[in-house]
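User: Please go through the entry that follows and flag anything odd:
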Amino acid sequence: MARKTSGALLPGLDLDPSADTPLATQLYDSLRYHISEGTLAAGVRMPSTRTLSTELGMSRTTVAGAYDQLKSEGYLTSEEKSGTFVADLLPEKLAWSTQLHYARPDDLRQLEPDLAARFDDNLPKQRERTSRTLPFNPGIPAVFEFPSQTWIRIMRPILSQLAPNGIARCPAEGSIELREEVSRYLSGSRGVTCSPEQVLIISGTRQALTLIMMALANQGDTGWVEDPGYPGISRVYDLFRVGTVPVPVDAHGLVVEEAIERAPHSKFAYVTPARQAPLGHTMSIRRRIELLNWAYASEAFILEDDYDGEYRFGGHPAPSLQSLDPEGRVFYFGTFSKTVLPSLGLGYLVVPTRYVDVFRNLLDAITRPPSLATQLTMAEFMASGLFEAHIRKMRTLYLSRQNALSAVLRKSMPDLLESKILNAGLHLIGYLPKGYDDAKVARRAKDLGLLPRPLSDYVHKERLPPGLLIGFSNIKEEAMARTVRVLRRAIEDCQPETGHAPASRSPTYARGGG
């Protein structure tokens, strides 16, 4: 394709040096937006890092970091002695299936009104929630700490090898190279017992859940969900006409006794035992055994989401449910979105041996795997030891950032927020005073350039004090004090008319033992 030039100055870059969001993040977000929207068209030559840094008044290192990040994600390409260009094919088109996409014609409501309502309720909200990388977003890792140059160095020869024939085909279940590495990694880090044949390479949690429902769910089935818990599971249940049964959690995880009392014959149980989402508890061994015994007696299936399992800051992780399951009732899944990059769209699903052929055939029939080049790059990244080294580095960084943010919150607003440190993951929980509307506070914070998540987003039926999930992974320690001041303003702007009492205490649990 003929190369064009953007000119020296890129138009429309939305950068604010006074904002709390680092300029590197702002530049990355703005460039990616304009590329995705087509403002920067395929094949356009980008300004050199020197030129752009001069005209934007920022360091060349900052610009180079944004360029490297976009190259590693496939939005930009480099040609020796020619420069940097917008990629001809963007990741959105190359990655084939980052989720199972459903058509939404204008007359969808005429096809089936209740189905239309389910799509309208779920999909736009998800897109809006993940639209920007802002401080305090609990779902975004420190993307600028990722070794982009190393990733590019690994990917370059892989692309060269794939390019000559241009038709290299990846099996529906994913490349054997990556499946072998995932099997090895899960065995060593999680105690998961699986062969590479049991590993399916997918795009993420939603696709894992969708595949399981497509293969196993029947109309009228029911499924347990943690309450509070991941809201996406009930949406998937709903799409497949599976009834949602909210089950309370306590300090030992999902209260299995209560779940059996509410719905003993449920077909599915979705759990996050390594680190309960969002409260951060680890499911006790006793509860794990209770859950497995119920699944065996009921011929039910356990959906084990390894949520934030890599980032544990103390002690040894408990064995996965899958490692305790000799009967093959557990489906185990996770993603690389927080350990590598969210935009890669890579995850894994470990299926019991007897279901391997069923799921391979299902994948082959309905979708295509993520980009083969991305899979092979990830496999080499893991095989070389760089993946685990990166996790160790980030675990240290995130622990430091968690401690720093907690200290700033305690110092800056002890009257407005009770912060609770968790022993794993990328967020802490801040409990608001009684009477506050946490969703309203979150909306006001977003208006001010922050993206904490309201605890109420995760609640099904249980009553919890108002609170915020405050991500610490994507904000540098030196920016925390001024960013917390902005958060305080958001909270003060949402003060109930009657005033407020002292901060709510984090919930205590009287029921159930571990």
Notes: The first strand starts at residue 4 and ends at 5. The radius of gyration is 23 Å. The chain has a mean pLDDT of 84.
